[in-house]
Design brief:
Elements (H helix, E strand, L loop, with lengths): L12 E3 L3 E4 L4 E3 L6 E2 L15 H12 L4 H14 L5 E5 L5 H12 L5 E6 L2 H10 L4 E4 L12 E7 L5 H7 E12 L5 H7 L16 E15 L2 H9 L3 H4 L2 H8 L4 E14 L1
Parallel strand pairs: 4-7, 5-6, 5-8, 6-7, 8-9
Antiparallel strand pairs: 1-2, 2-3, 9-11, 10-11
Helix pairs in contact: 1-7, 2-3
């Protein structure tokens, strides 16, 4: 049985070779890449929401070179520490599936039998995600209307994606764990020094959320060297700075042949009460 539920009637979905079906007769085709589309028209805010083809390609190419592997390794360690023998896991806002697939494979190597699903609002980016790992279910869907039943997930990951707390609380089992990844104060600081005349650090704070208890804030720190303009362009294009940087700053960055910069993340770990 699938982790997904029908977005129309809420009934369980069964996955076939080429289609998901529910008992009420609703069906959802599976694209050749392996993902399905569970985003009703009334939840779309544009014709093609989320990352476009260019942004999806930038994320795929950058992450495939393992620049953020320290973050992946830490997430894998945390998931292993919190997972039972057969955990149900949702990656909400999974992007191109780098973390989703990496966590899934690490759990398998440790002898676990995870059931895992990832959702993202961009069909372009899910094409890459679904190709990464066929055993994971992927669907175009909104974090604010998750196509999962109540208390369906043991673990939930939100990595740089919208914080849909009500839905996260609904789909997590009591005692389930929520991992929320955000950039730390000096993440990509050296890149920001190139982009802006007066760069500012990211805000860091500990925010309690109703229905969740804080377990830990886990830091991830490192330094990466981007040896070519292509990698610089990919990193720039997958960050929010791509949309709000003055032209002069963007031109300075893209004229460089290489860049060494800090990477710095915080993983906020919560338990559902």
């Amino acid at each position: 049985m699938s982790l997904f539920r029908c977005p129309v009637c809420g009934a369980p979905l069964t996955r076939g070779d080429r289609v998901y079906r529910c008992g009420a007769g609703h069906s959802y085709d599976i694209a050749r890449e392996g993902y399905t589309y569970l985003l009703p028209p009334n939840q779309k805010h544009s014709a093609a929401p989320g990352d476009d083809r260019g942004m999806a390609a930038a994320r795929r190419d950058f992450l495939s070179k393992e620049y953020y592997k320290p973050l992946l390794n830490t997430l894998c360690d945390l998931m292993l520490a919190h997972a039972g023998p057969a955990p149900a896991i949702l990656d909400a806002g999974c992007g191109e599936g780098y973390y989703t697939a990496g966590i899934y494979r690490r759990l398998l190597e440790a002898g676990r039998t995870p059931q895992m699903a990832g959702i993202d609002i961009s069909k372009f980016i899910l094409r890459t995600a679904a190709r990464r790992e066929r055993a994971i279910e992927f669907a175009v869907a909104s974090s604010y209307h998750l196509p999962l039943a109540d208390a369906a997930a043991d673990l939930l990951l939100d990595c740089f994606s919208p914080l849909a707390l009500e839905e996260f609380s609904r789909v997590l089992k009591p005692g389930g764990t929520f991992f929320y990844v955000v950039p730390a104060a000096e993440h990509l600081w050296e890149m920001k020094q190139v982009l802006y005349d007066r760069p500012y650090p990211n805000e860091e704070k500990q925010t309690p959320y109703p229905g969740f208890s804080y377990e830990a804030i886990v830091p991830v720190e490192g330094t990466i060297t981007l040896p070519c303009r292509e990698d610089l362009q990919n990193l720039f294009q997958m960050t929010p700075y791509y949309w709000k940087t003055p032209r002069a700053g963007a031109e300075r960055l893209l004229s460089m042949d290489s860049l060494t910069t800090r990477i710095s993340f915080r993983i906020h770990v919560f338990q559902k009460c």
